[in-house]
Design goal:
By secondary structure, the chain is mostly beta strands. The chain folds into 3 domains: 34 residues, no CATH class; 101 residues, Jelly Rolls; 101 residues, Sandwich (Immunoglobulin-like). It is built from 3 helices and 19 strands. The strands form 4 sheets. The chain has a 6-stranded mixed β-sheet with strand order 1-3-5-9-10-7, with no helix packed on it. Strands 11-12-13-19-15 form a 5-stranded antiparallel β-sheet, with no helix packed on it. Strands 2-4-6-8 form a 4-stranded mixed β-sheet, with no helix packed on it. The model has no long low-confidence stretch (mean pLDDT 90).
Length: 306
C-alpha cells in the first residue's frame, strides 16, 4: 500500500495529500476511487481475518482485530517459523516453566511434558519413562526433581537414549533431593543436574570389596580385604592406581568374632612400603605367650590418596 503517486494530477505535495487553499488558489489533492477502495480493503482484510463482521458504524474494529486472540494465536509448542510470538509463547519458551505438576507412581511422559517442572513424590520406588527422543525436537527440556522416600528410575522409552556425563544408558536412578534436566540433543536425552554427578568420572566409584570412591577434589578412598602371611604381613593390590601418592591408611581385623577369648591383635598400616598400586599392613597377635606374628588373620585396609 502506498500513496497514489502514479495517478496523473493527483495533487500530492511532498508525496502526501494536501488540503485545498482557496486563498492561494491551490486545489486540494484528489483521492482516486481505486486508492480509497484499496485502503478500505486492507483494513477489512485485517478485521475479517480476526473473525469479525465489518460494521460501517464502528470506528474501532481495526484495533479490536489487532488485539484479538483469533488474529494472534500462540504458535504450537515447537514452532520455529517467523510468525509473531505472543506473550504466552515467549513465557513458555523462556524464563519460566510452561507448567508444573507432581507424580508419585509409574508414568509415561509425553511431549506435552516438555518445558514442565515435574516433582517426583511418593514413598515407594517406581519408574518414569521419558518420551522417545526421536520424536522430540532439539532443545526440548523436561525438568525432574525427586522428593520420593524411595528411588525413582528414569528410563528411556527405547534403547539407550539417556546420556549422563557422556555415557549412554537405558535408565538412571534419582534419589531424594536430586534434580535433573533432560535436554534433547542429537537424538539423546542429555542429563544436567545433581542426578548426573554420580556418573561423572570425578565421582567414579566401585561399591564392592575391593572398592573405591573418587571425589572432584582429586581425593580417592580405597578399601581392600585379605589375610596375613606367615610373617604377619598383609600385602594387597588396590582396585585402581593412585595417580600421585598415598596419603595415609588404617588397618583392622575383618573378622574379630573368629578369635578365641584372651587373644587380641594389633594392626598397623605401613605407609613406608605401600605404593600407589599396593598396600601393606602388619598384624601381631597378643596372648599369654607374648606378641608374635599372626598368620591367616583376615584383615581390611582403608587407604586414601591422590
Amino acid at each position: 500500500m502506498d500513496y497514489p503517486k502514479s495517478v496523473p494530477s493527483v495533487g500530492l505535495v511532498n508525496g502526501q495529500f494536501a488540503d485545498e487553499d482557496p486563498v492561494a488558489g491551490k486545489p486540494g489533492s484528489l483521492i482516486p476511487a481505486t486508492w480509497g477502495n484499496g485502503v478500505t480493503q486492507e483494513i477489512l482484510n485485517v478485521v475479517q481475518a480476526a473473525g469479525m463482521t465489518p460494521n460501517e458504524a464502528s470506528n474501532n474494529q481495526l484495533l479490536g482485530a489487532l488485539r484479538s486472540q483469533t488474529l494472534f494465536n500462540t504458535a504450537p509448542q515447537f514452532d520455529s517459523g517467523r510468525s509473531a510470538a505472543t506473550a504466552e509463547f515467549v513465557q513458555r519458551a523462556l524464563g519460566s516453566y510452561a507448567s508444573a505438576r507432581g507424580i508419585s507412581a509409574a508414568t509415561q511422559l509425553t511431549l506435552a511434558d516438555v518445558g514442565s517442572s515435574i516433582g517426583l513424590g511418593g514413598t515407594v520406588a517406581y519408574t518414569v519413562t521419558l518420551p522417545d527422543a526421536a520424536s522430540a525436537p532439539n532443545g526440548a527440556t523436561i525438568s525432574l526433581h525427586c522428593r520420593n522416600a524411595g528411588s525413582v528410575t528414569v528410563a528411556s522409552k527405547t534403547g539407550t537414549q539417556i546420556s549422563p556425563q557422556g555415557a549412554y544408558v537405558g535408565a538412571i536412578v534419582m534419589n531424594a533431593g536430586e534434580s535433573a534436566n533432560f535436554v534433547r540433543e542429537s537424538g539423546l536425552w542429555v542429563v544436567y543436574g545433581t542426578a548426573a554427578l554420580k556418573y561423572c568420572a570425578s565421582y567414579g566409584a566401585q561399591f564392592t570389596t575391593p572398592g573405591y570412591q573418587k571425589f572432584p577434589s582429586g581425593l580417592i578412598l580405597q578399601w581392600v580385604v585379605g589375610g596375613s602371611d606367615a610373617n604377619g604381613n598383609m600385602t594387597l593390590s588396590l582396585p585402581i592406581r593412585f595417580p600421585s601418592a598415598i596419603l595415609g591408611g588404617v588397618a583392622n581385623e575383618a573378622n574379630p568374632a573368629g578369635w578365641s577369648a584372651g587373644n587380641a591383635t594389633v594392626w598397623a598400616f605401613d605407609l613406608g612400603v605401600s605404593t600407589t598400586t599396593q598396600v601393606v599392613a602388619r598384624v601381631r597377635n597378643i596372648d599369654s605367650t607374648g606378641i608374635k606374628p599372626s598368620t591367616g588373620i583376615s584383615g581390611r585396609i582403608l587407604v586414601w590418596g591422590v
